[in-house]
Structure formats: structure tokens, C-alpha cells
Design goal:
The structure holds two protein chains of two kinds.
Chain A (H helix, E strand, L loop, with lengths): L1 E11 L5 H26 L1 H23 L1 E11 L2 E7 L15 H10 L9 H8 L1 E7 L3 E4 L16 H8 L5 E6 L23 E5 L8 E8 L3 E3 L4 E10 L4 E9 L2 E10 L3 E10 L5 E8 L13 E9 L3 E7 L4 H12 L3 E7 L22 H7 L6 E5 L3 H4 L2 H12 L3 E5 L14 H5 L2 E3 L5 E7 L1 E3 L1 H5 L9 H9 L4 E5 L1 E3 L3 E7 L6 E8 L2 E6 L6 H8 L5 H14 L8 E4 L4 E2 L4 E7 L23 E5 L5 E2 L1 E5 L5 E6 L5 E9 L2 E10 L11 H11 L2 E2 L6 H10 L3 E10 L4 H20 L4
Parallel strand pairs in A: 3-4, 3-6, 6-7, 7-37, 9-15, 16-17, 16-18, 18-19, 19-27, 29-36
Antiparallel strand pairs in A: 1-2, 2-38, 4-5, 8-10, 10-13, 11-12, 11-14, 14-15, 20-24, 21-23, 22-25, 25-26, 26-27, 28-30, 30-34, 31-32, 31-35, 33-34, 35-36
Helix pairs in contact in A: 1-2, 2-17, 6-14, 7-9
Chain B lengths: L3 H16 L5 E2 L7 E6 L13 H11 L4 E8 L12 E5 L8 H12 L4 E5 L8 H12 L6 E2 L27 E5 L2 E7 L3 H5 L16 H20 L9 H8 L2
Parallel strand pairs in B: 1-3, 2-3, 2-4, 4-5, 5-8
Antiparallel strand pairs in B: 6-7, 7-8
Helix pairs in contact in B: 2-6
The chains are: A alpha/beta, B alpha/beta.
């Protein structure tokens, strides 16, 4: 840095108005003259003049102080131009480079450190002698580097947004030198190079690394697919396949559901760099979350094979909730339930009523019977997965279903289906239910041998869990809802059950001893419910008898179906999965527990600060079913939590949240790090950036120092240092006043004046 | 050895039991799942066939899985327990007094919200007596839903048996009538006196002859009775698509 002194100057800043100072100065002159006239007769003209001038001098100095005179001095300092060197360290820089370099990063490192390039010294050293060099690593973000870090620098992470990085440096440096393979991205808000996407006042010199001519790769660049598909309806998945370096080849592209091949197509590339869109159409036939993938087999000489596939989650649902209702006999309970289910346009009901038992005697030939065989094998083997909810209504199941069917129902629930058991004398099937596979699924067990009681009408009441559970929340107001259930018509028959550990009673009988009436639970991924009465239809008819509507019963049935089939709108637990998660990066899942659970009068029943938070259990299972370490913490707002885990590998992970009022399980697809990763050197992008900023593309063989000079010649910058010294505050000024007064005092004494 | 005194005592007791009037239970708190409740009304004759329930309920339990009670209950339209009745039955021979607005409103609410009524004209003369009074009241209860003939493919003819003959004590109409609201027929009306065909005494003897068809006509009345009860408990279940091909195939046999 060089310094030049510039001319100094005085400046005035009077502390009182100038006219006052002139008046004061005139008054001082007048007083000095008066003094001269008085003492001239005693001391003579010369001595009187000296004393008067000394007095006038003192007075004038004080007046000058009031003028607040300052001396301003200026110095100009000149600095060397600052240049930024951006070294791309994204993962593509780890791929092999040309000229025998192990990686593209090594190639860039060689340019900066590895010896003479346009001069006798390494480029970085030469630059540092002339310029203020600032070194940056450009990966997912811009990071300033020390020179000593360069040798140990490793490639990793995604390419940063180069235009954002350059915008950050604009105004701080005069020139940017970018060493990159060109796979860096542009900011997503600027899809292409536009007038505003790059800074205007920062010329960019680019030095491309990597060899675009020898790079070969097949990339599944993008897959466009709906996140939610309807079972039984054709859907289309579009995949973009890009070829780098393969010309006149045909490759197969496969669409898979997990490991199962769905369909395959062939793609032909005419040019060495070409993208082709392939459309796959198929009909999903199974509900649930599927891990779909589009892939192509590795080709000879491919630089990267891990970008040959993309996985994506697809949730297959029904456009209608399909309910299978099997009733043990015709009854008012069946009639009212059927009417309620038929009343719901979102429900597709298939019902079977056992009209005749083996002990009934039929007295007419076949052509006079309307009875159809109960297709038990079809329903409970091949077709079971086609339903979302299976309801057994007072069904003596052992008469019609064998062990295999019951096991199929258990597996149906375990894999996400819903099952409801409606009460009546046959509900427990003479106690067989406890030992059947269904007993494992149900949230209740038998409380005693006599499992059904009829003839002692009983009302119902909400349990503490029922008061906040969405299924029993027929009215938004908690107190009104409580009253509604308390005043529901009595039930004339009850199954005497007890709640199992996995179950939660929402309604219990109002008479003592209380028995659970409505109990919910979960088994595997599915939900289960028992309604321990065959008289719930009286909640319809009984309300009508009171002159009211039957809305409460209809809403109860509707909410039962919605809750069992995990309607997100009714679920007390909501999970927000990240849009995309990659292996090796923490995956964060937002969990929200319905506000009712943690509301002012939560499950504890304690208001205000005394209430406790709903404890939640957050579990994550790897694709192999192994439970993984995970964390969950409250994220501030009531009922909101953030769960996280660290997936090491790509695949479908299960995330499960359990609370006292229910549980929810979702599947999360963790993508591979290299998915859709196109690492082909894009030197054209670097050329465009240089052109757009008024810079230039340099090759490693050019004299970089010489090429830089014109860009920074006009960019030499400096600054002027300005210092202002107020003269009145200098000690010399005070000493001068004191000296004037002291001399005057001395002379007066000497010359005999008092 | 039984004494003469004991023999006479037992014999008298048995005879008394046979001739004692059967007591109809009032609707009380504890109901079985299915039972027949008969409407009592003013004027006319509300109970032309007092002994009809045993035979039809026995037939119902013998042929179907319906769990039923033989107890016949009676009720007036203004009693709140009306709404707990799974199956309402109403019969008569003669014209009855017009219902009050409360009675009409109660019956309308009961039928609109899922209730079921089987009504029977035991006299069987169109436009006269019970028939005229019942049609008058139905017009008041459902002014926008006229009684209509039920088509042969109505669910009530397919709910258990495939019925194509309307039985009864008499053969006035070859069809049933009803009030149809959407897919549900809450009122079914017959002039063939089905309950007359079902009635029998305590010895199991039919109380009425079925004319002109005789016992075949009685059998048809029972089959139709079973179908009506099963329909009242299953609604239009047999209209579900899964039943269609089976029923079509059997009708073509």
C-alpha cells in the first residue's frame, strides 16, 4: 500500500455568531486603547504600548478560540486490487480429470499450486504478490479458504449456486477467477443466465477443468410422477433419461415397484448428448406407500452408475373408502349402519348379511331362493386387500371363517387395513375370539364368561381419552360434546369386555361396574375398533324420538370410518415428511399432535400451566426393519414436534409416532446421493458466465497473470485519510495565553503598576 | 299314581290356560332385537287378527338367522317408544278416526328416519273401510310421496325368497303397494290379509281358510311375510351389485 500527502487547510466553525465576535473584538480594541491612554502618562508611550498590546493579544487569542479554528490534513492511501479465486469443490470435482490427474479438483489444484504457469512461480504465489487474493471453496455454500487448506481439500456436497456466490463477492473484489467443471447450478429463482442473475460490476474469468469429450454417463435426470395415485386408475410416470457420450445406442429403462418390475421401455440416443422423455403407464392395484423407481442398467465405460436410477414414494389410495360389512344376521343395527354408510358418498359399501345359518331349514328349491353363497374364500384371501375397512357385525365367525381367513384378516390389519368389531350375542363367538388370530388384533379382551348382557339399559359416558379423541368429538365444543354423549339414548345390550394394554376406551357404560363400549387401538400399521353393543342404532332412533335429528349417529359412523381408514383430516397425529431426503443427511419430520390433545384441558384434565404435554414416542425403522436411533423434540408451538434421524443408505424407512390417543406410521423414501446427478463437465456454462460478466475463459496453458492485468488495471483502488485538528484545544494555545498574561503581569510589577 | 283330585286340578289349570286371553306386553325398557309392534288407534278395529305373531315368528326363526321374539307389543303413535320399534304393524277392517297432527308427525318422523310399517287391510275392499282411512292418512303423512305399486324386482320380493306370488287369506291384489323414499320403502301395504293367513290357535290349527288358493296361498303368505321382515331389517341389501348375477341366474332356472 502506498501513501501520498495532500495539502492541508484551515476551517472556521465559530461557537458564537460572527457579529458578536466582531463586537467583542472592537470592545477589546477600545479597552486596550483606553488602557494605553491611562497608563501612558505614568509609564511613557513605549511601555504603555507594550502593556496594551499584550492585553490586546490575550483578548484576541480568546476571541480566536471562539472562532474554533481547525486544521484539516489529508493523506491518500492506494491498495492493490482484490481478486477472488473460487475453487469448485462439489462432488463432481472428485471425478477423474484429464492429463493424468486423479480428479478434477486435483487438476484445479495443479493450476493454482503445482508449478510455473505464466511465470516462474506457482500461480497463487504470483497473484498474491501483486493482488489482494481471497480464496474461496464453492460447494453447497461459499467458504473462505486459507492457502494451507488447499492440499487437503476434498470434493463433496452439491454444487453451489454460482450466481449467488458471485453476487456476494460483488463490490468486495475487482475480479473473480472460477476454477470449475461447470456442473455448478444457477439459482433456482434464475432458471437461466439473465441480465439480473449475475453481478454487472464483477468480471469473471473461468478456468474449466475436467474433460467433456471423454466423459460417459447415462443419467435418470428427472421423474415426474404423482405423489398420490388412485387404485385401479391408470397413471403415467414421465422419466427424463440423459445420455452423455453415448451415441447411436439403445438402452432399456425399467419401472419398478420395490423390486418388482412393473414395465420396461427402450430408449434410443442418436446424439452423444441428448435427453429423452419416456412415459410409463400402468394401473396401481394395491393400496399403501410404494417405493417406485426408474432405472437403467450400467453401460460400458460409464463414469457414474449410481445416477442410473431414481426412487420416489407413491401413495396409492382409493377415490372412495371401500368397506366390507359382514353381518351375522339381519337386525336393526345392520339396517341403520347400512343406511348411514350408504348415506356417505365417500364410502363404497359391500355388505353381506348371513340370512340363513346351518341350523335353518330351507323349504323351497334353489330357484326360489335369493340367497347367494357367502364368498368367504374370495373375500378373505384374494380380495381382502381391495378393502380399506372390514366390519364384523355380531358375526359368529367360526361358522364361516377358518383359521386361514382369520390369519389373513390379522395380516390385513398388520399391513395397514382397518378392522371393526360390532357387538351382539355372537361378537365373542362363544369365547373363541380370545384364542383366534383376531384376539391378537383387537384392543379388548373378554372380561368374564358371560360376555353379553341384555335387558339392563345403560347410557354411555366419555372417558378422558374419549373427550379429546376425534372419533367421539361430534361437537367442536368440549362441554357440549360431553353432554351430548351423556344424554345419548340408553343401550339395551352390552358385551362385557375389558380393555387390553394396546387399546384405549373412548366410551364406557354409565352403570357400575363400567365396561368399555367403544374401544380403539392399532395393530401393525392398521387400526382397530370394537363397539360392544348391537344397539347403537338407538343413538339414531332415540334421538329422533326426542324430536331431534339423527345427525349424531350419522356423524359417529362417518367419523368411525374416517378414523379407522386414517383420514388425515381426522387424524390427531399429522406427519409432514421432507420433500426429498438423501442418504447421509439428517432427515427431519415435523409431527403435529391435534390441538385438542394438548389443548387448555388436555388429557390430564389440568388447566393452564399445570397441564402436561402429551408424551410421544418417535421410532424409525430401516428398510431392513431395524430400529434406528432417532430424536424428537418439542418445537415450540403446543403439540408440535420435530423428529430426526440419520439415514446412512437409500431406501424406504418407516417412521412411527405413538401417543396416548393413537399412532401413525408413514413411509419415507431416502434417495441416493447421486440420484439425478449429471456430472458431465459443462464448459459452455462457464463460457456463458464469463461472457455475461465481461470476463473471459482461460485455459490452463495461457499466461493467467497477463490475462488478468487488463481486468484489474482500472480497478486499482485507494482511499483518502482526512484528519481534522481543532487548534484551540492544543496546549500551545493555552501556553500562549498564559505567556501573554504572565509577561504583562511581570512588566506591570516591574514598572511599578499594581 | 295320580289322584283324582290332582288329575282334575291339573286338567282345569290346563284348560284355563288355553282359554285365557294372551296378554300383550306394553313396550318396556328391555327389547329383544326383533319383535313386532302393532299400532293401536281410535275407531275401527285395530286388531283383526290377534293371534298372528307366533306362526310368522316361528317361520322366521326356522328359515332365517333373524333373532326374534314372539311377543307382540302394542303402541299408540304418540308414545315415545315408537322410535325403538324395529317393525311396526298396523291392520284393520273398518274406517278409523282421523289421526291428530301429533300422531301424523310422529309417524312421519319414525318412517323418515329409518322406521318401517307393514299395513294390512283385513277386509280387502278398495276405497272402503280401513283401506280408505289408511290411504287418507298416508296422503296426510307423506303428501309428496304417493303410495305406489311395488315393481316385481323390488327388494322386498328378493330379500330372502324369490317371490312372484302375493299370498294372503284373500287374494284382492296381485301386488303390494308402498311409499318409496329414495331407495327405501318405509311403508308396505297389502289388502290380501297376510296376518289372517298366518293366524292359528293354540293347538296349531289355522284360524282362517285361504281362498281361493288354499294352502299354497298360505305358504306364499308366509314366504312374503318372511321377505317383508327381512327387507325391514336389511333395506335394499339385495340390490347390491354382488347379488345381481345370482338372482338373475336363479330367476332363469
Amino acid at each position: 500500500m502506498s501513501t501520498t500527502h495532500l495539502m492541508a487547510r484551515l476551517s472556521l466553525a465559530p461557537i458564537v455568531p460572527l457579529w458578536l465576535l466582531i463586537i467583542l473584538l472592537a470592545a477589546g480594541l477600545a479597552i486596550a486603547f483606553m488602557q494605553y491612554r491611562v497608563i501612558r502618562k505614568r509609564l511613557g508611550r513605549r511601555k504603555a504600548l507594550i502593556l496594551s498590546l499584550l492585553r490586546l493579544g490575550t483578548f484576541s487569542l480568546i476571541i480566536l478560540f471562539a472562532l474554533n479554528i481547525s486544521l484539516t490534513s489529508k493523506k491518500e492511501h492506494r491498495t492493490p486490487p482484490a481478486i477472488a479465486i473460487l475453487l469448485d469443490t462439489s462432488q463432481s470435482m472428485g471425478l477423474p480429470a484429464k492429463d493424468g490427474n486423479e480428479s478434477r479438483l486435483d487438476e484445479a489444484r495443479q493450476i493454482l499450486l503445482g508449478g510455473p504457469l505464466g511465470g516462474p512461480k506457482p500461480l497463487l504465489t504470483s497473484l498474491a504478490e501483486t493482488y489482494d487474493v481471497r480464496l474461496y471453496a464453492l460447494s453447497e455454500s461459499l467458504r473462505e479458504l486459507e492457502e494451507k487448506e488447499l492440499p487437503a481439500l476434498k470434493p463433496g456436497g452439491k454444487g453451489g449456486t454460482i450466481n449467488d456466490a458471485l453476487k456476494k463477492l460483488a463490490g468486495q473484489v475487482s475480479l473473480a477467477i472460477v476454477l470449475s467443471d461447470g456442473t455448478t447450478r444457477l439459482n433456482s429463482s434464475s432458471p437461466g443466465l439473465t441480465d439480473t442473475s449475475l453481478p454487472k460490476d464483477l468480471p469473471v474469468l473461468t478456468i474449466p477443468v475436467g474433460d467433456a469429450d471423454t466423459y460417459r454417463d447415462i443419467v435418470i435426470s428427472a421423474v415426474k410422477a404423482p405423489q398420490v395415485a388412485f387404485r385401479g386408475r391408470e397413471l403415467t410416470i414421465d422419466a427424463t433419461i440423459t445420455s452423455r457420450g453415448y451415441k447411436n445406442v439403445t438402452i432399456p429403462v425399467l419401472l419398478k415397484d420395490g423390486s418388482k418390475l412393473v414395465t420396461a421401455k427402450s430408449v434410443h440416443f442418436n446424439m452423444s448428448s441428448e435427453s429423452v422423455v419416456v412415459s410409463f403407464s400402468f394401473v396401481p392395484d394395491e393400496n399403501g406407500t410404494h417405493m417406485m423407481s426408474v432405472s437403467s442398467p450400467p453401460q460400458v465405460g460409464e463414469s457414474i452408475t449410481s445416477n442410473n436410477s431414481i426412487s420416489l414414494p407413491m401413495r396409492v389410495v382409493r377415490d372412495k373408502t371401500r368397506v366390507l360389512l359382514v353381518s351375522g344376521n339381519p337386525s336393526p343395527n345392520y339396517r341403520f349402519m347400512r343406511m348411514a354408510l350408504k348415506n356417505d358418498p365417500s364410502v363404497d359399501l359391500l355388505s353381506f348379511v348371513i340370512l340363513r345359518t346351518p341350523s335353518n331349514v330351507i323349504n323351497v328349491p334353489l330357484q326360489e331362493q335369493s340367497l347367494i353363497p357367502f364368498p368367504v374364500d374370495t373375500l378373505f384371501s384374494t380380495e381382502l386387500k381391495a378393502f380399506d375397512l372390514v366390519i364384523f357385525d355380531n358375526l359368529p365367525f367360526h361358522v364361516y371363517l377358518n383359521q386361514k381367513h382369520l390369519e389373513a384378516i390379522r395380516e390385513f390389519v398388520r399391513s395397514g387395513g382397518a378392522f371393526a368389531l360390532i357387538g351382539g350375542p355372537n361378537m365373542a363367538d362363544g369365547g373363541r375370539i380370545a384364542s383366534a388370530p383376531l384376539g391378537e388384533v383387537l384392543p379388548v379382551g373378554l372380561s368374564q364368561e358371560e360376555d353379553y348382557s341384555r335387558g339392563s339399559p345403560s347410557g354411555v359416558r366419555l372417558t378422558s381419552a374419549g373427550a379429546v379423541h376425534p372419533l367421539t368429538r361430534l361437537l367442536p365444543d368440549k362441554m357440549l360434546n360431553l353432554r351430548l354423549w351423556n344424554e345419548m339414548p340408553s343401550l339395551d345390550g352390552l358385551n362385557l369386555l375389558k380393555v387390553k394394554g394396546s387399546g384405549t376406551a373412548l366410551l364406557e357404560s354409565a352403570v357400575s361396574p363400567a365396561h368399555p363400549v367403544l374401544t380403539v387401538g392399532s395393530y401393525g400399521k392398521g387400526r382397530v375398533l370394537t363397539l360392544a353393543t348391537d344397539f347403537s342404532w338407538k343413538w339414531d332412533a332415540g334421538m329422533v324420538a326426542r324430536g331431534e335429528d339423527n345427525w349424531a349417529y350419522l356423524r359417529f359412523i362417518e367419523r368411525t370410518v374416517r378414523w379407522l381408514t386414517k383420514d388425515p383430516g381426522l387424524d390427531p397425529i399429522t406427519m409432514v415428511l421432507p420433500d426429498r431426503s438423501e442418504e447421509g443427511q439428517d432427515a427431519e419430520i415435523k409431527v403435529r399432535i391435534g390441538e385438542d390433545v394438548n389443548g387448555p384441558y388436555g388429557p390430564s384434565g389440568l388447566p393452564g400451566s399445570a397441564r402436561t404435554r402429551e408424551p410421544i414416542l418417535f421410532s424409525v425403522f430401516s428398510p431392513q426393519g431395524v430400529k434406528l436411533p432417532s430424536q424428537v423434540k418439542a418445537s415450540g408451538a403446543p403439540g408440535e414436534y420435530t423428529g430426526s434421524f440419520h439415514p446412512e443408505r437409500a431406501g424406504m424407512y418407516r417412521v412411527r409416532v405413538e401417543t396416548r390417543t393413537g399412532s401413525l406410521e408413514e413411509s419415507l423414501i431416502i434417495g441416493g446421493r447421486m440420484e439425478a446427478f449429471d456430472a458431465a463437465p459443462d464448459h459452455e456454462l462457464l463460457r456463458s458466465i464469463s461472457a455475461a460478466t465481461g470476463g473471459k475463459v482461460l485455459s490452463a496453458s495461457e499466461n493467467v497473470l497477463k490475462e488478468i492485468a487488463p481486468f484489474v488495471a482500472s480497478a486499482k483502488k485507494g482511499f483518502v485519510e482526512e484528519r481534522e485538528v481543532p487548534l484551540w484545544s492544543l496546549p500551545y494555545a493555552l501556553a500562549l495565553v498564559v505567556a501573554f498574561l504572565a509577561i504583562e503581569w511581570y512588566l506591570r510589577r516591574r514598572w511599578g503598576l499594581a | 299314581m295320580i289322584s283324582r283330585r290332582t288329575f282334575l286340578r291339573v286338567g282345569l289349570a290346563l284348560s284355563a290356560g288355553l282359554f285365557l286371553e294372551r296378554r300383550d306386553l306394553a313396550v318396556a325398557g328391555a327389547f329383544p332385537q326383533f319383535y313386532i309392534t302393532q299400532v293401536r288407534y281410535r275407531g275401527g278395529q285395530w286388531d283383526p287378527n290377534p293371534q298372528f305373531t307366533d306362526a310368522i315368528v316361528e317361520e322366521l326363526e326356522l328359515r332365517t338367522s333373524v333373532s326374534a321374539s314372539k311377543e307382540r307389543r302394542t303402541i299408540t303413535l304418540t308414545e315415545p317408544d315408537l322410535f325403538s320399534c324395529p317393525f311396526l304393524y298396523m291392520a284393520g277392517k273398518y274406517e278409523f278416526d282421523p289421526w291428530t297432527s301429533q300422531e301424523r308427525e310422529a309417524l312421519k318422523r319414525y318412517l323418515t328416519f329409518g322406521g318401517f310399517l307393514l299395513a294390512e287391510d283385513a277386509m280387502g275392499i278398495r276405497g272402503f273401510g280401513f283401506d280408505a282411512a289408511f290411504r287418507r292418512e298416508m296422503k296426510q303423512v307423506f303428501p309428496t310421496h304417493e303410495m305406489q305399486k311395488l315393481p316385481p324386482d323390488h327388494s322386498v320380493f328378493q330379500s330372502f325368497y324369490l317371490v312372484n306370488t302375493i299370498g294372503g287369506r284373500q287374494k284382492i291384489n296381485a301386488y303390494l303397494e308402498g311409499v318409496v323414499i329414495d331407495n327405501w320403502t318405509p311403508v308396505i301395504y297389502s289388502q290380501n290379509d297376510l296376518s289372517g293367513a298366518w293366524s292359528r290357535d293354540r293347538f296349531g290349527k289355522w284360524l282362517n281358510e285361504c281362498a281361493p288358493g288354499g294352502e299354497a296361498q298360505r305358504l306364499a303368505a308366509f314366504k312374503l311375510g318372511v321377505n317383508i321382515i327381512v327387507y325391514s331389517l336389511t333395506s335394499d341389501y339385495k340390490k347390491d351389485l354382488v347379488h345381481h348375477p345370482f338372482i338373475k341366474r336363479r330367476q332363469n332356472l
